Fold this protein.
Amino acid sequence: MCKKVCIILINWNNSEDTKECINSLLNSTETNFDIVVVDNNSIIKPNFTDKRIKVIYLSENLGFAGANNIGIKYAAENKYEYVWILNNDTIVERDTLLVLLDAATSSESQVITNLILYYDTPNQIWFAGGYYSKIFGKGIHRYINRNVNKVQLKRTKTEFATGCSIFINTKVFEDIGLFDEKLFAYSEDLDLSMRLKKRGYNILFVPQAVVYHKVGRSFKINNTASEGKSSPLQVYLFARNRIIVSRRYMSKINFSLFYLNFFLLNALKAAILFLINRREKSKMLFAALLNGLRM
């Protein structure tokens, strides 16, 4: 039997959620898969006994992009036909993998994304396909926060696939390249989606495949700062990466208009953060506004 699917999970000081995700995967009706856990230099190293699980321990935190690239390279070297990039803070339905695999083998699309619901409010949509907004410089989730029972979802092409769950033919990476490791985390999925579009690949949204997402759990667990819900690093990466990706995929005129508006809004935000004594966030936000133009 050929090796069909390599499921890549990134763990960073969050073994409990990783174990819950793995347990849901091992309960899948489709069984032709292996799981690769790439550990981003966690303090407590995860360990699993199931023979379908391989753990790759990194000596430094490579971020979402770098760690996933390690997993993708492993999948390519070991001849897996498909890669499923999946957040470790998710739970899957028993038939999710089967539906994804069926969609990949029965359609012309090489890239599949799926319905993602909030774990804590499972009738509420987190992702149902999306698109790149050149006004806001980010990927927009369709129907976000809507009740899944009150919208009609169908299989359709979508411009943007979230990095929370992307099912992709391994050979596609040979054509478009891997995740951009300079981005580290955030917007790397948008960058990948836009490269897919430029190379002529269609992304298919399949609502029959369902994943439940504990949104932002990894960063929440690892955020030890006393400056609010988001860490200074998150604030920096969010802002910097939106600028970097927008420069790549907007015209010069569109980017100039976007950056002017983005700079003014975030410079004001940074000033407010400074005044309310969230100095590290203020500093990192100003740095992001400048560094986004330099990279």
